Amino acid sequence: MKKFVIAFSALGLFSLSYYLFHKTSRVEPYWGRTSERAPASALDQFKPEIKIYQEMFSYPTYQKKVGYDLDVKLRTDADDEYLKRKADLALHDAFRLSFEKINSAKEKEPSLISVFKAGMIESFVDHFVKTIGALKLVNKTFQIDFSFIPHVQKELNFKEELSSNQLVQWDDTGSLFQELQSEELSLQEKILNTKLPESKKLFDYQGGQISLWLKILDMSPSFNLPNPKKNAVKGFVRIRRYYKANALADLSPFLRSAEFKIEKINFEMEKGKKDFYVTVDVFKEFSLGDIIPKLDRIEVHFGTLMPDNLYKNNLIGKLITNDNGAIKTGEFKIKGNFKGQDGKEYPFKGTVKRLTYDFEKKSFDLGDSKISAAISGASPSEENSGTSLYYQFHESLLKRFAPELIEGLHLKEFHAEIGGEL
After folding, report:
1. Neighbours of 351 (CB within 10 A)
2. Does residue 183 sit in helix, strand or coil?
3. Distance from the Cα of residue 82 to its chain's centroid
4. Distances (CA, A) of 406 to 98, 104, 176, 267, 397
5. How far apart are CA 192 and CA 202, in angstroms?
6. End-to-end CA distance of the chain
7. Among residues 72, 179, 85, 83, which one has the least CA distance to residue 138?
8. What is the pLDDT of residues 33-87, one digit of tens each?
9. DSSP state at residue 138
């Protein structure tokens, strides 16, 4: 596994991560150990960002039994090795240029608030885009993944700390050969195979990934690209967090309105799986005209560990490639009845696979959310009709009773702005 001894950027908290664990590939839980405290009012504008990343940087160590490694990987659909080397060069150059702003500062160690204000998000994205363009790596897709991989230290000793003082580890011979011989696991497989201690919370953070994805189109006159500022560069930052759900049996039915009633909630485990997992993706999009990533949407995948593939931003890719390698751990089932537009009550059985919330519209996305339902008296041939019982079911649950859905599933734990402003 290729490890880079770097801190990272472009991800909403690029500069904070530099400040907290520069020059290390192991993520240390240094939250709150800064040498000076910034005024609360100065950090108010960053509260949503801090809440998103706090789990990654301030994870519980369980008496130093748990830690996370940081792995950095560049992905591209360019199949030419020369182009891949040029893309790798662009990545390193973007880091170098972005860090110059902090390294040239007068302070030996920049304060938390000054690092936040350093404009590192804009700087990294801007430098990477310009370097990619200068190297003429156009009409290609690039994705930089920063993966937070959990590990459990079973023995309470100082083996890792003392290993640097010994040239040969006589009690650890053969481990390198075993590691080289073993098959490389995907991020989702590592999350599934690493058993972390449980807390009393409903959702326990298990690890995650922060990805920068972008595509630069050819802007030459012969290509005649319309609206270059909007279309020349397409990109997003995706903050992915994996959770293990605990005490699901204690989650009571949260909707008991006369218009829509959920009588039973059931989390069915996949055969052979012992734990129920949830994947949460926060997307922040940017373009050439607006290079600072803006909060776009959040996707909550129930019962699935989503794969760390190269993201495909097209219809076929979204339907096939983006889910390829996903690990299913269970299904989130709901049962009840709702009142249709004709005033009649209709029993239903549904499976909640994905909930997508649009931050700009401040509502759930009916088209992107995935809830399958069997409704008594409904005709499957009318499923896509705007007046069908299926549409009425989704509209009632995701629109009319969105506040109850958000509160009942504790969705604000994943992002404080779900359901409205802070």
Report:
1. 17
2. coil
3. 30
4. 38, 45, 47, 18, 11
5. 18
6. 40
7. 83
8. 333 444 555 455 556 666 676 777 666 777 778 888 888 888 888 776 776 777 7
9. -
Residue 280: both structure tokens together: 């949460």
The DSSP H or E segment spanning 273 is none
Indicate the domain borders of the chain.
Answer: 14-413
Amino acid letter at 225?
L
Q: Which two tokens stand for residue 272?
A: 């052979």
Provide the whole-model pTM.
Answer: 0.79
Residue 30, sorted as left (phi over 0), alpha (psi -120 to 50) or beta, turns out to be alpha
Q: Is 172 exposed, middle or buried (0-12, 13-18, 19+ CB in 10 A)?
A: exposed
| Cα angle, residue 395 at apex, residues 390 and 401 outer, rounded to 5° | 130
CA atoms of 387 and 373, how far apart (whole Å): 16
The per-residue pLDDT for range 232-259, each reduced to its tens digit, is 778 888 999 999 998 776 777 888 899 9
All residues at 6 or more sequence positions from 368 whose CB lies less than 8 Å from its CB, including other chains: 297, 299, 354, 356
- Per-residue pLDDT reduced to its tens digit, 91-104: 777 666 665 655 55
Whole-angstrom Cα distance, residue 91 to residue 98? 11
Q: Which stretches of 91-183 are assigned E, i.e. beta strand?
A: 140-152
Residues 6+ apart with CB under 8 A from 161: none
Length of the chain measured in residues: 422
Pull the structure tokens for residue 171: 């009690």
Take residue 326 and report the two structure tokens written for it.
Answer: 């996903």
Which residue type does 148 have?
F
Consecutive H or E run containing 282:
strand 276-287
Q: Where are the alpha helices (DSSP H) in 327-418?
A: 389-395, 402-408
243-282 per-residue burial string, b: 16 or more CB within 10 A, e: under 16: bbbbeeeebeebbeeeebbbeebebeebeeeebbbbbbbb
d(CA 313, CA 101): 33
Euclidean distance between CA atoms 124 and 97, whole angstroms: 8
